aldehyde dehydrogenase (NAD(+)) (Botrimarina colliarenosi), 511 residues
Amino acid sequence: MDLPTNLLPALINGARPGLAIGDAYTLGGGEAFDPCSPIDGASTGKCGAAAPDDVAAAVSAAHEAFLKWRTVPAPIRGQLVLRIGEMARQNKADLAKLITLEAGKTPSEAEGEVQEWIDVCDFAVGLSRQLYGLTIASERPEHQLLEQWHPLGVVGVISAFNFPCAVWAWNAMIALVCGDAIVWKPSEQTPLISLACHEMVLRAAATMDEAPAALSCVVNGGAETGAALAANEGVPLVSATGSIPMGRKVATVVGGRLGQSLLELGGNNAMIVTPSADLDLAVRGIVFAAVGTAGQRCTSLRRIIAHTSVADELVGRLTKAYGTLSIGDPTEEGVLVGPLVNQAAFNKMQTTLAAAAQQGGEVVCGGDRVTAGVPAGGYYVTPALVRMPAQSEVVLDETFAPLTYVLTYETFDEAMMLQNGVPQGLSSAIFTSDVREAGRFTGPAGSDCGIANVNIGTSGAEIGGAFGGEKQTGGGRESGSDSWKQYMRRSTTTVNYGDALPLAQGVKFDV
Ligand code: NAD
């Protein structure tokens, strides 16, 4: 694949920069690393890494940029995001190429990810004129009680490999209109797309006097680079996306210094298929949610909870549909299922399948490595469906691969208990034509997830809603709705425009 080098900063001593403080690119003092493409296991090029001191320098430069940016009127800040969105639109296909190379997504899914960035830009531009506060009725005469939202500071973004552009965009585009600066620690799997995204911001910022370049900084590297960002006192908000163990560590460090963390962690997403479900629709919804992105979405379908009256037919239809999937090099026309990210992901899928079999699971189809007709060095698998006798230990964990368990239920209460009976709480769905079941599922005693869908699958959210989940998924919400409030600080103001000084609650204190 031709690398769109026009989007990337130049090589430094044969490697991509590990540190970008605005437009100042350096290798960084950390240990350089050499990521591989999931497609064929070949190196995507050496990349420098930011050492803890570099992270501190980036935070300090971003803070200086923030001090200037916070006084720029929000609608003008919106103009920067408008221009960033234009850069993303113009370079959509090339940006998508980098996502395909580094994350192994099909071009359509990779372009969809860039589209998410564009969509969130549009959303953020509108928002830049709607960062509304409140006027509140004061209990005191001739007093005004107001609530305002002010820029927060430097936002640290730690992102996962599987959405290497969109996750940053959800955070960064909203944070920019909110008046913040960003220091981004991308996944060590995906340094190229992060540098390209940063370049787009720089090019947009260069067209506006009001926008300092250091509003955007990138610190490439592994867990230690992320840990240095989480620990930095100059970062009031750390938004971290990735596995639950990573989130636990970040939350402990950020909580220890009483900073705020916004966590978007692993899911264990289920779909209930009821007796009244439209099975044609359900099959399509399941296949996309379970095998799209080779099961490597946080919202990928991990569990099907099917009524006993439809389970056999559903499994039969799914097995047939799985048999038609084209698996292979994602750059090839017609391929729907690309590679796993690396060998470790393949090994984890295999050990999970063995554990499932030990716990009484029956592999209905899939789970094998595909080696014929695919690039050597990549880890390609046939998506697996495994019927489980119960929601046993193995089902409670997220396995980041196309592996979906099938469980059955008799009563709706039983289905809900299974749906909610896992430690994670990201996405969920029900397929039903019964309005009462749909109402119960989406109501207060229904799904305990951040996303509860009816007659669509668990994955593929739009940016307009708040995205995130409960329980061990971390409780964070990003992207649309009122998620912007997390990137600002709230200020409550009381103005006395009278001649007296009445105290609240009628307290007397005359001197
Ligand atoms: P990961 O946890 O291995 O890494 C995520 C990021 O955290 C990387 O940038 C990594 O370098 C960094 N990191 C690791 N240890 C750290 C530490 N101690 N301190 C600071 N940073 C650290 O995750 P991954 O394999 O890249 O991504 C897959 C996981 O991400 C899955 O569990 C998936 O469900 C989750 N995910 C969740 C969402 C969501 O919105 N809920 C979105 C995408 C991915």
The mean pLDDT is 98. The radius of gyration is 24 Å. The longest strand covers residues 143-151. The chain has two domains: 40-265+474-492, 269-454.
